[in-house]
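Annex B. Sample input.
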Amino acid sequence: MDFSPFIICDPDQGAPRPRPINTLEGLGDRMRTAAFAELQAIAAFRWAVDRFQDVPQTLRDDWAAQIPDEIRHYEMICRRMDEMGFEITERPVSTSLWESLEECTTGQEFCIRIASAEERGRRAGVRLVQYLGKSDPETAAIFQEIVDDEVAHVALASTYFDWTPE
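Annex B, continued. Sample output.
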């Protein structure tokens, strides 16, 4: 999978730890990670729609319907990063999410695994919104919109497989 323009870290290494949140570099690290997660979600939902014929067509349709949200999220974060002078290519990112999704052998497994990842992203977004609320309301608003959308994305696993986040 080509995830350009991101720089992918070596498979035997994880992505570098984000720098402190109270620095511009640390905020850039978190935004880069979020943008990359959105790009992986776009690829994953496109892949899953065709790959998993063992789930109802309605679920595959629901996955396809999420793709425009993921694209919008990715574009909002990238646009804001550009406005703030953050480079996508400044630090490498990990493809571990994509790799874990590629390992799924059933649509149910994929649905739950991606819902779990979306929930982790939603929770991180909530923390980022709280942190940025007064100091950077424009970035906070972007992540609040993403957080709000992720609720419905995560709910698909509950709707189809009675799964709920921890």
